[in-house]
Design brief:
The protein contains 16 helices and eleven strands. The protein is of the alpha+beta class and about 425 residues long. The chain has two domains: about 210 residues, Cytochrome Bc1 Complex, Chain A, domain 1 (2-Layer Sandwich); about 180 residues, Cytochrome Bc1 Complex, Chain A, domain 1 (2-Layer Sandwich). The strands form two sheets. Strands 1-2-6-3-5-4 form a six-stranded mixed beta sheet, with helices on both faces. A five-stranded mixed beta sheet has the order 7-11-8-10-9, sandwiched between helices. Strand 9 and strand 10 form a beta hairpin. Helix 1 packs antiparallel against helix 15 and helix 10 crosses helix 16. The longest helix has 21 residues. The radius of gyration is 23 Å and the shape is globular.
Length: about 425
Amino acid sequence: MLVIRFIFIVLLGTYAQWALAALPIQHWQSPSGAKVLFIESRDLPILDISVDFSAGSSTDTLDKSGRAGLTLYLLSLGAGGLSEDQIAKAIADVGAQLGAHFDQDRAGLTLRTLSSARERKQALDIFGRVIQYPEFAASVMEREQARIIAGLQEADTKPDNIADRALMKMLYGSHPYALRGSGEIESVSALRREDLISFYRAHYSAADAVVSIMGDLSRAEAAAIAESLTKELSPSKAANILTAVTAPVSETKRIAHPATQSHILLAYPGLRRDDPDYFPLLVGNHVLGGGGFTSRLMNEIRQKRGLAYSVHSHFSPLKQAGPFEISLQTRKEQSEEALTLTRKILADFVVEGPKEKELMEAKQNIIGSFPLRIDSNKKIIGYLAVIGFYNLPLTYLDDYLKAVSNVTVAQIREAFQRRIKPEGMVAVVVGALEKK
């Protein structure tokens, strides 16, 4: 035990010093009104940019479900007088990469390019057009609607998708977090070009933009880039009022399915990004079900009883309480036993918290793997975007290891008791054993 503690302290000191020295974040507001975060990194001739907006699926409505996701997807499929093929060719010609990310809160576009003058100029020209001058061509939209509808039809036959869809509806009810990001067949079918244009104008504004930049350039160059990417956007910010999440009505739904295994999901509203219980819940969940083969759920359900090949728990922090989920698959005839045992393990953990040895090992694993989470510009830009979008402290990454190391058993126990009510969980079993 003393050896483990010594290694833990050494790791903490080494990685904390490394992180603090490696990530000096600069920040400012551009003349357009955008928030900008920047890290200068001269090690590689690479430039990474992420531009995020409050335009996630929670900005949809029930009858317009899928609108936010389709809007984001179509941005790069024709913009600024260029067709989707011309955009793809121009990006490929300079070896750049366009990307996107989307969830309940955020819609974001990313660019990775060489920092050399010709390549950077061409890539940024295309990126600026995509963000500021999307065309939403009717023919492209119709094609993508058909593709999405076909995907939804297929997804609605798969047990994991059926389970997730049912779980979110039970967990969030009428809250926007219950809406499926890809939409529903009926709502996507009913979308029109005008819906996407009005959504874009309302939600893709300079005042709402968070521009994250990292790479081989100066602050002055970063400032010019941030302004060039947002200056033509609307200066007004949409009122994105997201109501708080309320506790669900406890329920277990069993859905018949011909799959050979039962897919089991349990959930409860978890935590916000700025939640003061963030780190106790993060570390506690590593012990409970987020730590792979070392977790309590894995040990009790797989190792000791062979009820599932894998079982996992995780928190998904959002602006409002994102889901805390436990997921596993098991043979149909074992589904009720597995579900009952999962509930008991969670209930016991909420009452007792982790043991000191479990806590020490969890901290050691989290701190030991931390450098791998920020070992590339691409990974760091992802964290930078989260810090900017959720207004987290600029020292978030520097403080991360210290916050993890300071978590106690009592804090974990108290945080889980405040946030998670095992008796209030919702659960779905898809592929439940049919009663005779």
